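seq as requested:
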Amino acid sequence: MAAPIDILRHYWRYESFRPLQEPIIAAILEGKDTVALLPTSGGKSICFQVPALLMEGICIVISPLVALMADQVKGLNEKGIKALQIPGGISFTELTTLLENACYGNYKFLYLSPERLQQEIVQNAIRRMQVNIVAIDEAHCISQWGNDFRPSYGHINLLRDLHPQVPFIALTATATETVLKDTIAQLQLKEPTVFKGSFIRDNLSYHVFPETDKEYRIQQFLEGLTGAAIIYVRSRALAEKMAARLEHLGISSTFFHGGLSTEEKKKRLASWKNGKTPTMVATNAFGMGIDHGSVRYVIHMQLPESLEGYFQEAGRAGRDGKPSQAILLYAEGDKQLARRQFVDSQPSFEDVKKLYRTLNNFFQIPYGEGEFTKHQFNFSEFCHIYKLHPGTTYQGMNLLDRMGILSLQKEFGRKSIIKFVVPSETLLNAFERNASFSLVGKTILRMYGGIFNVPTTLNVTQVAKKLNLPKEKIIAVLQEMEGNDLLELQLFETDASITFLVPREDDKTLNPYKREIVSQKERKAKQVESVIGYVENNTQCKQLQMMEYFGELDGTPCGQCSVCKQNNLSGAKDTETIVSAILALLKENPHDSRSLVKNLNFAEEEMLEAIDLLLDAQKIHLNAVNQYFCKE
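struct tokens:
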């Protein structure tokens, strides 16, 4: 049998393992249940992929991240390793074929979601397989104390019944001590060997800045940037707006969010990776499976939902080992906004019960039926019809999804796309021959500019309201125009789909989950307060704050974060030194306060205090364009 290092060199072309990878692999090869708690970019997947290739049979990988599963399967196949994934939305025949391939096709890896394990056909197929390892990725999702609790993870234990002698490996990057203990108990791991890597990354420094003008601060960071950057925002609209603003400032940028088509996402990701557009402004839909070594900055424009999520997103910086920064900008009002957005919007148990009944009534599902039925769904219209609060409703639907009661496929915000493909003269002739074409077509032309040149997003509902016609009538006219080769149309009439995973039993369905639903708000409140505590603590090293949150208590100040730099400057520079530096710079040219801060290596607060002292002493003055100057 080959050695682990031989497998690593042959398939991955690496000459050595990263810290802890080798002993983790050794534990699995000895048949021990194992826990690998490694930080983002710590190389978790190699910990089960290498031993699986050394052993007879197939490795079952459970993951909640569809995009990451697809990315790993693609990567393995490109290395010549046979791997497959069971995606959602496939027919029974396709599912049967994939399972037969996994059983008899000499595959080494089978990736599937925890929800798939609920299907009897999947369980029966796994029973027939020669399984060598069960790998549970994002294992913290099984703990009700974790940030990403998914009750469907509770079904993983049935794999132990199907293959009692097979070693389990649980992998995660963001588990506190409480979550780690709960994860081990929930997975029923047998005397597991626990490997816990340090969360400290010497090349990554954490910075927190109170900032009213976030745009300007980001511009300061990104001007002259060598490498790539990610700017995280919390809405699709802000992602688009910020990317456009940076482009206007001469900083090449693009945006990424869940409303983009798969092809558009691939295109933007490729443009970012190859350096054509080095700055990516994104929602948290951007991240899982992203592998780009030279990210120098990860900047958060708003407070994150939790420190677990922030640590993962910040960890995308500096994967090549070079100095990089994780920067969090916040205004005072962001604290209350975070409490409203993440805590106040959490539904009560009664809210969730009402939502579940409403959904069943909306789709006319009789009591005792509805299992595995799929329905197209317009989220906005649903909230409007039943006068439901969109934020609370969205959180409630996510809870139902996590509890395995339904599966929610989200494409919120997707709009139809239209492009006229004939010359304007041809189109006007068609309008003259057909009154409906004229009415709808001219309205669209008035509402949207440049529609002849590029595909344009179209809100069919707005067009219908403008004309006071049913939406179905507008769609029918557009489809007829498409049939006459006047335009190209991609029509999205819904923005989500729902699959009910259990029969409708109303209260009986939800009562077993009451405790989890009630405690969800308490957990969210604790997580948000931890984030607020992190940004408000300006006395302790930011890296130490982060490490202590994850239970790592024996660290030393990093010397590079915003707190350490402030402490270093405060200790090394007195006011007289700062005053002298300001006067020397102003004798050369006038500068505004931002320019002074940018050009001098002092803490911003101390700079502003020194400027006030110089103004009071009338040693410097302000000109008509708010620049400071020195008369001497």
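Residues 4-196 form a domain with the Rossmann fold fold (CATH 3.40.50.300).
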